[in-house]
Amino acid sequence: MTRRIDHVFQEARRTGRKVLIPYIMAGDPDMATTCRLVPALEAAGADIVELGVPFSDPIADGPVILRAGMRALAHDTSLAEILRAVRQIRRGCSVPVVLMSYYNPVLQYGEAAFARDAVKAGVDGVIVPDLPPEEGAGLIAGARAHGLATVFLLAPTSDPARIAKVSRVSTGFVYYVSLTGITGARLTDPREVSERLAHVRRATDKPVAVGFGIATPEQAGAVARLADGVIVGSALVRVMEQELEAGADADKVVRSARDFVAALRKGVDG
Q1: Which residues contact 7 (CB under 8 A, 6 or more apart)?
Q2: The pairing of beta strand 208-211 with beta strand 229-232
Q3: Span 184-196, average pLDDT
Q4: Is the dihedral of CA 151, 153, 154, 156 positive or negative?
């Protein structure tokens, strides 16, 4: 729920620590592995875990996340199945879980029903990249009623009005997309983020996490000096994909993901 995310950022601010948020695609390579990955990433230093919901038309995803989604869909991974998996994960894992889903699966599920069932399962928040806040009243209302955080996105092209709007309706944290384009694009110079992020900082007192383009521990550390949180997705999914392509079993996939997140943690803390 929202309070679990709030607690993470409050503790991080109190101790001077930055929040690390790795992303994995739920159901990639299968749901049993996802249920093992989340606690492994928590043990490696993840403060929040972002779980992708696979969708057949992922307009914001680059090739790495796209392929992960296709692998998950090959096993008929659904939003309902993901909620069941989160319920299982919650039995031994307390890390906040945020779902990243395109709007269509949420709409098909029913916005209010999704918010209710997500919180019951142990989900703390949701990010819907193709749902602008102007069209998100139904989801926002359902989420507020059940205590589910709604995280909206800002981009380098966001004007002051958009920054104010997103800051007002976001709960948990604000997601700042560090570059224009799809996931998996590379952030060439974190200093490019600094000036635009300063405008966001002046518009909100909510935590700001930066994602897109962060691929190495060094980049994670550089971004951590500018933001409250660092989100890493494609680079982690690529590590897992390389193991799968090499024929690795689930144990090796989990270990490699855990080790990469541990390296990111060192980069963020450093």
Answers
A1: none
A2: parallel
A3: 66
A4: positive
| Active-site annotation holds for 111 | no
- Phi, psi angles (nearest 5°) of residue 184: 95, -15
Is 119 in contact with 1 (CB distance < 8 Å)? yes
Helices (H), 131-216: 137-146, 160-169, 191-203
pLDDT digits (tens, 9 = 90+) for 129-155: 999 999 999 999 999 999 999 999 999
The confidence band for 213, taking pLDDT boundaries of 50, 70 and 90, is confident
List, in sequence order, every residue forming a beta bridge with 21; answer none if it has no partner. 231
Catalytic residue among 50, 111, 241, 243: 50
CA dihedral over 216, 222, 224, 229, signed as positive or negative: negative
d(CA 181, CA 39): 31
Amino acid at 137: A
User: What is the domain count for the chain?
Assistant: 1
CATH of residue 84: 3.20.20.70
CA dist 3 and 232 (Å) reads 23
- 105-113 LR contacts (CB < 8 Å, sep 24+): 105/53, 105/55, 105/78, 105/79, 106/79, 106/131, 106/139, 108/79, 109/79, 109/80, 111/138, 111/139, 111/141, 111/142, 112/138, 112/141, 112/142, 112/145, 113/142
Residue 53: domain span: 2-269
The CA distance from 70 to 231, in Å, is 22
Q: What token pair was written down for 36?
A: 């093992």
List the catalytic residue out of 6, 47, 61, 228. 61
Q: Is 259 a catalytic residue?
A: no
- Express each pLDDT in 58-83 by its tens digit: 887 889 999 999 999 999 999 999 99
Report d(CA 181, CA 214) in Å as an integer: 13
d(CA 4, CA 2): 5
